[in-house]
Structures are given as C-alpha cells and as structure tokens.
Amino acid sequence: MRVLIAGGAGQLARAIRETWIDHELIVPAEASFDLGNPESVRSAILEARPQVVLNAAAFTQVDRCESEVERAMRINGEAVRWMAEAADETGALLVQISTDYVFDGTATRPYRETDPTNPQSVYGRSKLLGEHSAALAREHLIVRTAWLYDAWGKNFYLTMRNAAAQGRQLKVVDDQRGTPTTCRALARQLQVAAQEGWRGLVHGTCGGETSWHGFATEIFRQTGIQADLSPCPTADYPTPATRPTYSVLDGAHRCELGTDLMPDWREALGEVIGIG
Length: 276
Ligand SMILES: NC(=O)c1ccc[n+]([C@@H]2O[C@H](COP(=O)([O-])OP(=O)(O)OC[C@H]3O[C@@H](n4cnc5c(N)ncnc54)[C@H](OP(=O)(O)O)[C@@H]3O)[C@@H](O)[C@H]2O)c1
Fold this sequence. Notes:
The structure is a single chain. The protein is of the alpha/beta class. The protein has a domain at 2-150 and 183-205 and 247-263: NAD(P)-binding Rossmann-like Domain (Rossmann fold, 3-Layer(aba) Sandwich), CATH 3.40.50.720. Helix content is 41%, strand content 17%. The chain has ten helices and twelve strands. The chain has helices at 11-19, 38-48, 62-67, 69-90, 122-134, 156-165, 183-196, 212-223, 252-257, 265-275, and strands spanning 2-6, 24-26, 52-55, 93-99, 140-145, 148-149, 169-173, 177-178, 181-182, 200-203, 210-211, 228-232. Strand 1 (2-6), helix 1 (11-19) and strand 2 (24-26) form a beta-alpha-beta unit. The structure holds NADP nicotinamide-adenine-dinucleotide phosphate. NADP nicotinamide-adenine-dinucleotide phosphate is lined by residues 7, 9-12, 30, 33-36, 56-60, 75, 97, 99, 127, 145-148, 153.
C-alpha cells in the first residue's frame, strides 16, 4: 500500500515507520504538510495520491491547548476535515488517531465505542471534532488510544526513567486509571487493521489497567531501577487541563473486527525495556 503519514516526527509515527516496512511510506516534513494550512494538507495528499492517509499528527500538548483554543481546534479538528475531503478526492482510506480524552472519565467500567462522549478539556473537544471530521471521509477508520509511550519521544515512561536517574523524589498520581500503550503495539495493530479492511470507530489500547503510580512502579520493577517513588492524589498536582479520572477503553469491538494484536500492558512494557 502507498501510505501518507501525517505527523511523521511524532512518537507513534516513528513506530509506524519502523513497523509498516512492507509498504511504500510517504512522510512529508511538517513544512510541506502543515495542519494549520488547508492548501498544504490538500496539495500534499493530491500530489502523493496515497491509498491510505494516516493522521498521527496532532497538537498534543494538552495543557497548552487550554490557552490556545483556536490552534487546537484547527489542528486537531478542522484539519482532519481537509484530510477527509482530499482522501475522498483520491479514493484513500483516512485513518485518524483519537484519544480517551473524548470521555469525561466518570465511568466505572471500560468505555465502549458506543458510550457517549463528554470531553472535559480543550484537547478532548478538539480531538472529538477530529473524530467527527474523519467520519466525513467515505472510507475512514478512527482509532482511539491512550497513555502512549515508547523508548523514544516525549512520554511518561522516559520521564520516569530520566527523573529516577537524576535521583529525584517522585510523587505520582494514583487516582487516575487507564492503560499504558506502546506505540509499537499500536503500530502493528494499525497495520493489520488497514490490511484487514477495518472501518468505523474502534478502541486501540493495550490490555489491562493501572494508575500512573502503578505504571511507574512497574517500570522500576521491570528495569530494576531504584527510585524514590510515592503515590499522590490528582489534587496535589493541579494542571490547566482536566484529565479523565478513569479512561480504560474496552477492546471487545476490536476482536469483532478482526485480528486483535494488543498485548497486556505489562508485557508490552517488557518489550520496550528489552530494546530501550
Ligand atoms: N501521547 C498520548 O498519550 C496519546 C494518547 C491518546 C491519543 N494520542 C493521539 O495519538 C496521536 C499520536 O500522538 P503522539 O503521542 O505520537 O504525538 P507526538 O509525539 O506529539 O506527535 C505529534 C506530531 O504532530 C506534529 N504536529 C503538531 N502540529 C502540527 C501541524 N500543525 N502540522 C503538522 N504536524 C504537526 C508534531 O510536530 P511538533 O513536535 O513539531 O509539534 C509531532 O511530530 C495523536 O493523534 C494524539 O492525539 C496520543
């Protein structure tokens, strides 16, 4: 397949570039595929004429989105409509990556694709607009993921390792629950999903659940790093954007659509530590 990847320098895009090796990948630089500029998005897609447009780009700085609302809505929301229109012109499948932040986090069981959305942050609202925009494409697949990390990029896993290496005292919230998900596991799942012809909306996280403190504990257990780690409530760590308290995503629909490749989050962490 001929695949155009938007956001090619991001952590998920890197995993896709390293995984989808049997495909022809077109990875435009941000300067020639700027999600702030409709003409840039349109011309890049029309020129490349891909079979798949995979949007791994986003304004992902959740707290900054609170003060840069227009930018967030444009990059994470409107730009996806420009992609959908161009994908329709070239007959391409649009794969949009979305987030657990579309939910309000008040659930007491894993969220299903059919559960009502209710984002509590600008980032969540902008990504929900992105979902609606992607759904305008004739051929679309929207994959909601959460708590992404890998051995590269900017993420919680590397932050914890680096902070422990500096001997810092770590207080980590233990009252937000979700599922750490490796970029490489999601990249493999996305490849199979595209090959098997999945369409619509599907959740794509690793299996199981934990808190951020539980994740940190497991990172240090598996790496053998000695860290000064203690739990704290979200109230001790105020941020401009509200995070969902509970954002575990149900994976049952994924199994209905085809081959489920997402491992348990602890096993996926082991894979990253083995290589990273
Ligand atoms: N990280 C998570 O925990 C998480 C959780 C759920 C869902 N997601 C979603 O998963 C996808 C991939 O996330 P990620 O963690 O790989 O993010 P990431 O590492 O921040 O990568 C996003 C990429 O998008 C690029 N970008 C930002 N603004 C752009 C613009 N105007 N035009 C073109 N490119 C632009 C960024 O470039 P710069 O670095 O130059 O800004 C970056 O290379 C996103 O859709 C995100 O919303 C992420």
